[in-house]
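Intended use. Records like the one below are meant for learning the mapping from a protein sequence to its folded structure. Do not use them to infer anything beyond what is encoded.
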Amino acid sequence: MSLFPPATCPRLIVKIGSALLVDPDGGVRRAWLEGIAADIAERVRAGQQVAVVSSGAIALGARRLGLPKGGRASLEDAQAAAATGQIALSQVWAETLGANGLTAAQMLVTLDDLEDRRRYLNAAATLDRLLGLGVVPVLNENDSVATEEIRFGDNDRLAARVAQAAGAQGVVLLSDIDGLYDRNPALPGAEHVARVERIDAGIEAMADRGSASGMGSGGMVSKIAAARIANAAGAHLAIASGRIDRPLSAEARHTLFVAEKTAPARKAWLAGGLTARGTIHVDAGAARALSQGKSLLAAGAIRVEGSFARGDLVVIAGPEGRPLARGLVEYPSDDVTRILGKRNEEQAALLGYAPRSTLVHRSHMALL
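Structure written out for the chain above:
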């Protein structure tokens, strides 16, 4: 158990990409999957609670329905393939885990299930109960009903959000690559990055867009986004190759993204949010104040993007456009526009009502 042993990681999330589960012809790679199931069973017997985020439904369904482009030629094809393939995917997981004495449970979620606070808490409670019972939850995005506007788009970020909801200490993204490289690994001289202590602009610049297999939807950009979400919630995240047998027990090269100090649950949820309604751009002084743990005031705001209502999730971006924080805004976007750059004593006349003390209060904000 080279990655995240039970002694230091009581609860683990394992994400498995489509190209690992499904061969190019659309069939299940059963022998490989049986090895993963054996790895999971070994960890469960050692006291670790494990949940799986499994891709593969669209690829499996496309084969059964004879759909072109792996079922991704249109949204309607993807939804039909997902509905058909999910039942096959669930069956093969139940069989392989069952052969190792484990009970599998299926959970299908949409973006809204984890972005809406109440539904998120319900999903978290279900996960906690299943794991506490020794069950292995197998999760996937509910692609049969998801649309482009309300979907994760890849299971990397879904796995990170699941880790957050489950209170996991570790996430393993098994993929067709063994971690992060300083440039596209196909280029000469590309060097593997073994450990990332902080995700900054330099790390993000290393990401190579695209999925090498052509079967999945997540490239390195989505994996770094997932690492940011997981790390903010106090979970370490590893990108490791699944192109080997028994990858959860093998000693193999990988990239580890080291978590920061665990954030309070509400702030971790805010930091991991994916559906911000707009962006408030701030000046350098406001950016410094935010980094010191202060609230955002109208005086430091310089520009607004998007249309949002009071209480919506917004991104706060610095002078160069880099996201600094996420938070729940105290005003609708039209009113924010009216008071940009204005001090509190000037705001009442512009708004026609008594102003609130902040645009985004620090209690409802998470730094990125």
